[in-house]
Write a structure and sequence with these properties.
heterodimer, A: Beta Polymerase, domain 2, two-stranded antiparallel ribbon, 4 helices, 17% helix, B: 451 residues, alpha+beta, 46% helix, NADH dehydrogenase (quinone) (non-electrogenic) activity (chain A), quinone (chain A), membrane (chain A), NAD (chain A), EC 7.1.1.- (chain A)
């Protein structure tokens, strides 16, 4: 088949291949070769709208010259502001967000890890949700680190509430928070191997037999994902 | 079973006991342990409390270092109830996720469901299209749930301090709420009632009257509870000036909910960042300034009274002409769960009307039903964080989608998890008896802590 007349395909890595997860038998669905590409990487330009501009300007004022190297990307999506911060600048950024009178994000709602195996060089993410009680605002700070070097500076000294949250992100994703006072597992047993919330960690489970039929484990079933 | 051993019994071998002598307390052997400790020359005593202990609110483990009766160090061990709910959800559809999140914090299932569903709705961009009747039912159910959760908090707290009457009162009153839940959703707990786009089923006939009756009974019952505890000297002596944590401490440790409001800050997301139409209800945010266990109790009781106010307003709206008979699920055939449930002789199940509709009158309805139930809907890629004010504080659902039919990642910022970090701050330097009061006033639910 000639491919000359087909539209060009963007070079982003694929998110999913096929459908229904059928690997054991012939593809009767016709969707076996379906390629689902990763969604485009969003990025917002000024003006961000709402209080987001004021917030970004205040952070830029507080950070000064290093702002360029600190905030790598700004995303405004679904009325939420996300600041993608370079990991080496994270403690500095959070300190400004907490202490600057125009920012005053006194309350941190903790750290949440996410694993994007397709995003080479930025597979692991630590996501911080901050809330300002003074100004009644919210912001999300996201840092990434590669799988090969899963290190993010600890921010327990800035927000003591991150103590357990960072331990949880370490336990589930293997993100090492440098400078954490006692980075140990928190949910899994101390001698557990692997980090269960990572995408390359299997869900596990056994097939269940019911009235002669065998139902595979949830991650082995055919699915539309 | 002897209370003291020198390292030869099954509990700890010689090597395990290198830290010193090990005492195993099995109940009714207190005199022997006290005698043995008195005979020993050790000044420092490390007590392991839990994870199986009636006063630790579930499977919570506390490691307490004692100097006499003073706690010099308190360490918390969690993880005994970790069930991998967040991981499991990545292998189910968005709608199925509701049945998982409802099992996290099992004393406030409606809040888990609401936070998750509102996050999914935000990702779908349908927040404004969720029917008003569904929003009002959600608010009513959340407030009923707040009452039942606070009742358990106060009841178990009483029991842990050695008072059985508050426990009996609290659980008796909670039963009234659970009966309402059963009547409305079919289940007393873990009801998976709130769904993306609305709620699973409309209020059954008679529900409004039943809730009305509950609203008549409840103020008197709360008054009874207040009469029993508010000025009870045995109670106030165990709670006043115990487990002090001021506003600075709360902010640093990320504490929210009644603990924060007992430190004087009227921070309640229902008022400060309203959702589900909370800005249209008339209620107050109770606070206390004592920063202690007693203040947290007062805040909880006052919150129950405020919740009753909100429920009353919900009932007026639900039975008013504007909302009566209106839909409770989004009118978008590609998202809204198609089947309404109906109460049959054997319990809540598929509605015969719906089955007749899809099987004999509408081909499109059958297709939609089939696609939604087997495949589910797709959610545009992105992430959302939606916080709600649960009985224990800010419950946040951080939901990430990659554009598929299943969540890419769901993380719950459970208030119990964060608030438990306050145990060392509230217990160290106090008496060991106050540790129980301190932990109980945090009101942790281990299902939510460990998820």
């Amino acid at each position: 088949m000639s491919t000359d007349n087909l539209p060009g395909v963007p070079e982003e890595p694929i998110a999913r291949l096929g459908m229904f997860g059928a690997g054991d038998s012939g593809d009767t669905s016709g969707y076996g070769r379906l390629v689902v590409r990763r969604p485009a990487r969003p990025s917002a330009a000024k003006p961000y709208g709402g209080y987001f501009d004021e917030l970004a300007d205040a952070l830029e004022r507080a950070a000064g010259d290093v702002y360029e190297g600190m905030v790598e990307r700004v995303v405004v999506d679904r009325d939420e502001l996300t600041l993608h911060v370079a990991r080496e600048r994270l403690p500095e950024a959070l300190r400004h967000l907490r202490d600057d009178p125009a920012l005053r994000f006194e309350l941190s709602l903790g750290v949440s890890g996410v694993h994007y195996p397709e995003e080479t060089g930025a597979e692991l993410r630590a996501v911080y949700h901050l809330c300002s009680i003074t100004h009644n605002r919210r912001v999300r700070v996201e840092v990434s680190c590669p799988d090969a070097d899963p290190h993010v500076p600890s921010t327990v000294s800035i927000y003591p509430t991150h103590d357990w949250h960072e331990r949880e992100a370490y336990d589930f994703f293997g993100i090492v928070f440098d400078g954490h006072p006692a980075l140990t597992r928190i949910e899994m047993p101390d001698d557990w191997e692997g980090h269960p919330q990572r995408k390359d960690y299997p869900l596990g489970g056994i097939p269940v037999e019911y009235r002669g039929a065998t139902i595979p484990a949830p991650d082995q079933r055919r699915s539309y994902a | 079973m002897t209370a003291v051993h020198d390292g030869e019994t099954a509990h700890a071998g010689q090597d395990d006991a290198t830290e010193g002598r090990v005492y195993s307390v099995n109940g009714q052997d207190w005199d022997e342990v006290v005698q043995a400790v008195a005979d020993s020359s050790e000044e420092r005593l490390v007590i392991n409390m839990g994870p199986q202990h009636p006063s630790t609110h579930g499977v919570l483990r506390l490691v307490l270092t004692l100097d006499g009766e003073n706690v010099t160090e308190a360490r918390v061990g969690i993880g005994y109830l970790h069930t991998g709910i967040e991981k499991n959800m990545e292998f189910r559809t968005w709608t199925q996720g509701v049945t998982f999140v409802t099992r996290m914090d099992y004393l406030s299932p409606i809040f888990n469901e609401a936070a998750y569903c509102m996050a999914v709705e935000k990702l779908l961009g349908i927040t404004d299209r969720v029917p008003l009747r569904a929003q009002t039912i959600r608010v009513m159910m959340m407030e009923l749930n707040r009452i039942s959760s606070h009742l358990v908090a106060i009841a178990t707290f009483g029991l842990e301090l050695g008072a059985t009457t508050p426990m009996l009162f609290g659980f008796r009153e909670r039963e009234l709420v659970l009966d309402l839940f059963e009547y409305i959703t079919g289940l007393r707990m873990n009801m998976a009632y709130v769904r993306p786009g609305g709620v699973s089923v409309d209020l059954p006939a008679g529900a409004v009257d039943k809730i009305g009756e509950f609203l008549k009974i409840m103020p008197g019952r709360i008054k009874e509870m207040r009469k029993l505890l508010d000025e009870n000297p045995a109670y106030t002596r165990r709670t006043k000036d115990v487990a002090y944590l001021d506003l600075t401490g709360c902010m640093a440790l990320g504490i929210t909910g009644p603990m924060l409001r007992a430190a004087g800050l009227p921070w309640d997301l229902r008022k400060s960042q309203p959702y589900s139409g909370y800005e249209t209800y008339d209620f107050d945010v109770p606070t206390a300034t004592s920063c202690d266990v007693y203040g947290r109790y007062l805040v909880r009781v006052a919150e129950m009274e405020e919740s009753l106010k909100i429920i009353g307003q919900c009932l007026d709206r639900l039975s008013g002409s504007e909302l009566k008979g209106r839909p409770v699920m989004i009118e978008d055939k590609k998202i809204g769960w198609p089947a309404q449930l109906a109460l049959g002789p054997d319990g809540l199940g598929n509605s015969p009307d719906h089955i007749a509709h899809i099987m004999s009158s509408s081909m499109e309805a059958l297709i939609h039903h089939f696609k939604l139930v087997t495949e589910g809907f797709r959610v545009p890629a992105g992430q959302a964080y939606v916080p709600v004010e649960s009985p224990r504080g800010e419950l946040g659902a951080h939901v990430v989608s990659d554009g598929g039919t299943r969540p890419f990642r769901v993380h719950f910022r459970d208030p119990s998890f964060t608030n438990l970090q306050a145990v060392p701050a509230t217990c160290e330097g106090g008496m060991i008896a106050d540790v129980i009061a301190a932990v109980a006033s945090i009101d942790p639910v281990m299902g939510g802590v460990d998820r």
